[in-house]
Amino acid sequence: MSILLSRRRFLGLSAVGTSALFLNGCDRLTQNEDVQRVLEKAETLTETAQRTLLPRGALAREYTEADLSPVFKVNGTSAPDGEEYARLMAGNFADWRLVVDGLVRQPLSLSLTDLKRLPSRTQITRHDCVEGWSAIGKWTGVPLGLLLQSAGLLPNARYIVFYCADDLGATLDGTGRYYESLDLVDAFHPQTILAYGMNGVDLPVGHGAPLRLRVERQLGYKHAKYLMRIQVTDSFAAIAGGKGGFWEDLGYEWYAGI
Amino acid sequence: MTGPDHSSPQPKSELVHRHSGVVRVTHWINVLCLTVLLMSGLQIFNAHPRLYWGQYGADADHAVLSIEAEETGDSVGGITRIGSLSIPTTGILGASKVEGELSPRAFPAWLTLPRYQDLAAGRRWHFFFAWLFVINGFLYLIYGIVAGHFRRDLKPNADQLTARHLAREIADHARLKFARGDEARRYNALQKIAYLIVIFALLPLMLATGLTMSPGVNAAFPWMLDLFGGRQSARTIHFITASLIVTFVAIHIAMVLVSGAWNNMRSMITGYYAIKPERPPA
Predict the structure, then answer these.
(1) ipTM of this complex
(2) DSSP state, residue B139
(3) Which residue among A105, A166, B131, B158 sits deepest, i.e. has the most Cβ atoms within 10 Å of its Cβ?
(4) What SUPFAM superfamilies is this protein classified in (chain A) (predicted)?
């Protein structure tokens, strides 16, 4: 009996100790860099699993006109600040140019008219925000792969970085400029388009006029709005916070497939 | 360790080996996983505390459940809406104290991981422990099949499935009367059925609805969207299933406590469970 009692006391004390440690320690564990490094391994596991087990060319579901969200929520920036964007918007984006540069044979500078002359793709897809909501919209634009092909990637090209016109707050490097990046698997996916049209009209300012990225198998924050420049690179480690995107620099996953 | 003492006039408890090492280890890893998954899941829910039915759903769409804050003048109140029902839940749901001050917040800080609002951190916890949950659950399933654990310990015996037996078990449970003697060597039928529902229905449903929220998985297996009626329906089912698991855990813990807390805890830690002798007929 005495052995049992001391074991009881031991178990009782451990239970109290464990729960106290658990409740008080959770926030500290969340702020501990070593713990976070371990937790981040799950992102690599998710990315590897999705890239390995799921067909790389699988298409996101495309819906019908009847499925469109009555109201497509405007999220993040609703209109970029700054004189340059205001000037471009006032001119109906006639002076806007999309620059494609970096590790390419032929850098490009394209107007909205140039883009609209290229072959286009229209798709009705679901937009999933990392917060949890979804909205269905119809997007029209140029397949990114087409543009990259005409620019011609150099052999060491690994990532496509998207620079945007909007500031969304202070990031680690002191600027708040929105940017995003994709690997070549998603960049050349047939549904990855640079959209200039939404629900049958020109892309509204709230949704990223004049041009936004659609990358249908990843979460909403990958779909960069207000595109200004596309840079082909071998690494994004030296850009802004080094994590490959505005939200990635704030701790969100670079691979946003879940 | 003590065995049955046949010389004694009063029969004593007999220690039997009830839980194998694999069951005990996977059980406690699962406890850790479900705790972290629940708390980080509530953190993620708080980023958009509204649930919908169908393919899409956002602020302008009809919510089947919402846990939101409403500000009236200087004060903030919490309102939980389920269908057309509106329940004031200030202090717990919709608005609760953050560092002493009543603030808009779906689930309170003490239920979320981390306690402060940080969706990215919540997701990191959630997905790490989701992987651990899947690996742990997979090992348990393989063990359960190969070692005969499901067949031997969890499959209700024919005699347990008669209406009379089940009725008696329900009556016994209601009076908190638990099995002794030989009958305590196996799980009772209600216990077996509850465990089987959790192992083969609720936990797999949790994983499946979680994966259905992944746009990457959706592209590869669009039938999952059809199975659950859309991504937002899957999110709602994920929430309902989590609530059912919480309900199971609450009842499970209550039963552990009332049916011999230390004996039950010991059996899930050391493996050994004391069988109490039958009460001598009065």
Answers:
(1) 0.91
(2) H
(3) A166
(4) Oxidoreductase molybdopterin-binding domain
